[in-house]
């Protein structure tokens, strides 16, 4: 009897130590302790690559890559993320360039300028006009040089048969100016819709 009880105790202990795996499409903004939010359907892979927008005197380059088992600073959970960096040029002047940050491996994927894994489907905010089987992404973006943050809505598309993405940049409201705070600075990349061709 003692052996059976010990065996049951060991089995319970072993099963409680294993991380629960949940598909990123089921995450719902939660970050539960001990959970691995995995890209089971490999959706993030379909967004990986280098993309370029170029119109008139403006260009925006974004490079995305998938990071598996990212661990945020508190290490409570693991998650697969799409991470990225960008370069924005306007009137021949480079306004921002974070591309070199991709050369650094951050075990915490939140340390990249673009990161996230929120899956959007038809009817979700930002995906109201998505097709019935389409899956888009909502990613965070940070522009440290101007102390701004916001998010991107990223959708797959094509332009004249060439693979592309639509990226809508939505910046959070500028921070309130207080007695000890400098005046807020506008982000260098405009908050608008860009269509970027895959390179």
Reconstruct the topology from this structure:
Blueprint: H1 2-17, E1 20-23, E2 35-38, E3 49-55, E4 58-70, E5 78-90, E6 93-97, E7 114-120, E8 136-143, E9 148-159, E10 162-171, E11 193-198
Parallel strand pairs: 1-2, 2-5
Antiparallel strand pairs: 3-4, 3-11, 4-5, 5-6, 5-7, 7-8, 8-9, 9-10, 10-11
Signal peptide: 1-19
Organism: Flavobacterium sedimenticola
InterPro entries: DUF6705 (IPR046551)
Q: Main traits of this protein?
A:
about 45% strand, mainly beta, signal, single chain, about 10% helix, DUF6705 domain-containing protein, DUF6705, about 200 residues
How would you characterize this protein structure?
Residues 1-192 form the DUF6705 domain. This protein has 199 residues and is mainly β. It has one domain (20-198). The protein is built from one helix and eleven strands, in the order H-E-E-E-E-E-E-E-E-E-E-E. It has an eight-stranded antiparallel barrel. It is globular. The termini are far apart.
Major β-sheet strand ordering: 3-4-5-7-8-9-10-11
**Class of secondary structure makeup:** mainly beta
Shape: globular
Question: Largest sheet, if any?
Answer: 8 strands, antiparallel, barrel
Q: Mean pLDDT, rounded to whole units?
A: 88
User: How many structural domains?
Assistant: 1
End-to-end Cα distance: 66 Å
The number of strands is: 11
Briefly characterize the structure.
This protein is 8% helix and 45% strand. It has 199 residues and is mainly beta.
